[in-house]
Structures are given as structure tokens and as C-alpha cells.
Specification:
Elements lengths: L2 H7 L5 E6 L16 E7 L8 H8 L5 E5 L7 H16 L4 E5 L6 H9 L3 E5 L16 H14 L8 H9 L8 H13 L3 E4 L2 E4 L4
Parallel strand pairs: 1-2, 1-4, 2-3, 4-5
Antiparallel strand pairs: 6-7
């Protein structure tokens, strides 16, 4: 077998994405289409409606997309379900990459425990922060702004309220490090396009629906 055949026969590592839908309602699920991702959307017992766009995006993933509906209610009920599933998935595929999509820092002790067991697990606040999905700094300014806007739209009321935290959020969307000058330039571009308003380092938003 040639080196090229050997390389093509090497299986790609699977990324497992577990979305805390009570906490994050992603608007960019299409980023995962055609990639080695398996997606589980955890829906709370009281969440009776799912946006049509998200439902269609998950459906397009076929067998790689699945809803997990929580049958009971109670404090942290959904979190316990995610912890159970990530443990089961890690037992079946210890070489996988595991991503909990949530702004809930309560998952962080679990992430540290999994890392201590040599498992590649992390928590991200948005799908675009997953390392395999981060965009290159070499892309055009328009595409950078589009990616930033999609991320901010998905954060709802949890958007950064200060310039420094906005810049930190932007940093996590790119595969390479952004310098301070480029970060300032991107914030300035957001202001010029009237997508944000900055008043004494405080940020408010005028994002498209």
C-alpha cells in the first residue's frame, strides 16, 4: 500500500458536540455540515419550541445530529444528562474531541476532571470557538465581521458589555492570534457599520435580527 493510500485510510478523529440548549441557542449549526462531528442538542423539559432554522440545520446532519429531550425538571437536570452522555461517549471513543457548548461555568470542574483522565474535552460558549471551526486571520474583513456578528447574535443577552471583554470574545473566534491593533480595528469596523455603540468603554448592540 502506498503512503498516500495509508494516509487516506487513516480515520479522522470525531468531534462530539453536546449543546446545552437551555443556555445556548446556536444560530450557526451549518458550520458542522460535512465535517467529522456528532451533535447532541439537550433540550429541557419546559422547552417546547425549537427554532425552525436550527431544526433544519440539525436534520441536514442526518444520523450525526440528535435531540436529547430531558424528561424531568429540576435544578441542573440537563447538566447531569450532559455529564452522563459525555462519560458514555468518552468510554466508547477515548480518542475523540468533546465539546460542551454552554456559558455555564459549572461544567468547568467536569472538564478539568476529564482532562486529568487524558481526554480532550473543553467548554465553549459558541460553536465558532471550537478549534477546528475557528476562522483564519487571513480571511477578508467582511468575513471576519460576519463571523463576529453570528457569534454575538447567538449570545443573546450574554453579549460582552465592555470593549475589553468584546475583544477577548473576538480572539476566540480565530485560529491564529490577533494583535491588539487588529482587534482594535475590528471593533472600529463594528462601530463604523453601526453594529455596536461604544460609550466610555461600555458596549451596546444594534445587530440584525
Amino acid at each position: 500500500m502506498s503512503n498516500q493510500e495509508t494516509k487516506s485510510a487513516t480515520p479522522r478523529t470525531t468531534n462530539y458536540v453536546l449543546i446545552d440548549f437551555e443556555n445556548v441557542q446556536p444560530k450557526n449549526l451549518e458550520l458542522l455540515e460535512g465535517r467529522p462531528f456528532k451533535v447532541f442538542v439537550f433540550v429541557g423539559a419546559n422547552q417546547t419550541k425549537v427554532p425552525v432554522k436550527l431544526a433544519k440545520a440539525l436534520q441536514s446532519l442526518g444520523s450525526n445530529g440528535e435531540y436529547i429531550e430531558i424528561s424531568g425538571s429540576g435544578q441542573n437536570a440537563l447538566d447531569f444528562h450532559i455529564a452522563y452522555y459525555i462519560g458514555r461517549l468518552a468510554a466508547d471513543d477515548p480518542k475523540g474531541h468533546f465539546h460542551i457548548i454552554s456559558r455555564d461555568r459549572g461544567f468547568d470542574p467536569l472538564i478539568r476532571h476529564l482532562n486529568g483522565k487524558n481526554l480532550d474535552a473543553r467548554r465553549e460558549a459558541d460553536l465558532a470557538e471550537i478549534p477546528a471551526l475557528r476562522i483564519s486571520t487571513k480571511t477578508s474583513t467582511d468575513k471576519k465581521i460576519d463571523a463576529i456578528v453570528r457569534n454575538l447574535q447567538g449570545r443573546g443577552q450574554s453579549r460582552p458589555r465592555k470593549v475589553t471583554t468584546l475583544q477577548n470574545t473576538i480572539k476566540h473566534l480565530f485560529a491564529e492570534d490577533l494583535g491588539e491593533a487588529e482587534l482594535a480595528s475590528l471593533v472600529a469596523a463594528l462601530r463604523k457599520r453601526k453594529l455596536i455603540v461604544v460609550n466610555q468603554e461600555k458596549v451596546s448592540y444594534k445587530l440584525p435580527q
